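We treat protein structure as text, and this decision shapes the records that our systems exchange. This encoding replaces a full spatial description with a residue-level series of whole-number codes. Below, we set out a record of this kind in full and without editing:
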Amino acid sequence: MGACIVATYVQAQSRYITSRGEISFTSEAPLEVIKAQSKELRGAIDADKKTFAFTVPVKSFEGFNSPLQREHFNENYMESTQYDKATFNGKIIEQIDFTKDGEYEVRAKGKLNVHGIEQERIIKATISAKGGKLTVRSSFAVLLEEHGIAIPKIVYQKIADEIQLKVEAVFTMQGR
């Protein structure tokens, strides 16, 4: 019984979570720049297993250039009623000692699921460890076509086919 409690404690010590991470995107097309962000990114990192999982509700993105643009984003492009979240989960490639303060450049290999289509990706990120907290930052591009998101010709000059994403999230050790 005592060994079971110790094992649970050790396992919980290696797990970091966040419930208010930020993710933003920018679409830079010839006729229009569209920006939106969400502060509802959730995630977990298991330091021992080097695994991670992120999820964000698609409808949580705010900003845009108008309310109509947000409505089109949710209804016409992301179809957020059917595909209500975007996810990324997998493994951290590099060996890192998360208990030592420092800044680490890593590659996260996993499955990015956007619009119901999963794509294998390797995404570079910076992880800063300080005082038992991890801050994860990353910037990367997503091609709409790879996730089955079609842009009608009528708005082709207003919506980029490659969207730039930025992620920043602070993770705390579970149980703290």
